[in-house]
Amino acid sequence: MSLKDKLPPPLSSALADKAWSARESWRVFGIMSEFVEATERLSTVRPAVSMFGSSRVPTDHPYFLLAEKIARCLSDAGFSVISGGGPGVMEAANKGAYHGRSPSVGLNIQLPHEQKANPYQDVSQTFRHFFARKVMFLKFATAYVVMPGGFGTLDEVSEALTLVQTGKTRRMPIILVHEPYWRGLLDWFRGTLVAQGMISADDMNLISVIDEPQAVVDAIFGYYEKRGFEPSEAEREILLNL
């Protein structure tokens, strides 16, 4: 070891490291405030269904129109509808719910290229951190409805499947809409993940594939018919530690 290696770091570098550490520590309080504020604002929206899908589809796209119909059916049936608050399928979900009987909820995210919130939100909450936002999608949902989408949609449905599979959140319907879009992925799940033991065959039962708007609503009601929408005491404890 040379003499240079034994010398302490320059004062400016040490101060910079200390300042950065202080910023990291204070950042924790910002994260806490997001969880507290969102929890207080969303506590009254139950029962709710979280809907996901591409931000890139235009308003005349069949996926947009299908998502809007599903959200309207859910809203008229008494479910608040939670979306990411942006354009595309998120806007369709909020629009359908906004014109229905139950609240339309948008969980917006601040991005480097700013996401513009759609105008169809009765309840609007903005997040800086993706992980805090994703917790809220799960914490207040009684079901997931997943429209065709890209990386973000795949991330969200994978998160839901993982948390349900591992018992870190309560079991709930996870419904993929438009079977032709999801066919290749589900075939890969069965032909590769199940075949090679990466997931169990029973894990495929966590997923339903439904194409018709009213059938989506009926499936959610069917799931909760005998147990009701309110979480059990054990489920409340799970959600508290989500």
Question: Order of strands side by side in the largest beta sheet?
Answer: 4-3-2-1-5-6-7
Give helix % range: 40-55%
Give the count of structural domains.
1
| Percent in strands | 5-15%
CATH topology: Rossmann fold
In short:
The protein has 242 residues and is an alpha/beta fold. The chain contains nine helices and seven strands, in the order ααβαβαββαβαβαβαα. It has a seven-stranded parallel sheet, sandwiched between helices.
Folded structure, characterized:
The chain has a 7-stranded parallel beta sheet with strand order 4-3-2-1-5-6-7, sandwiched between helices. It has one domain (about 10-240): Rossmann fold (3-Layer(aba) Sandwich), CATH 3.40.50. The chain is about 50% helix and about 15% strand. The chain has helices at about 5, 10-40, 60-75, 90-100, 130-140, 150-165, 180-195, 215-225, 235-240; strands at about 50, 80-85, 105-110, 125, 145, 175, 205-210. It is α/β, with parallel strands linked by helices and about 240 residues long.
Map the helices and strands.
Blueprint: H1 3-6, H2 11-42, E1 48-52, H3 62-76, E2 80-83, H4 89-98, E3 104-109, E4 123-127, H5 130-139, E5 143-146, H6 151-165, E6 174-177, H7 179-194, E7 207-210, H8 213-224, H9 233-240
Parallel strand pairs: 1-2, 1-5, 2-3, 3-4, 5-6, 6-7
Helix pairs in contact: 3-4, 3-8
Features of the shown structure:
about 50% helix; Rossmann fold; single chain; globular; alpha/beta; about 240 residues
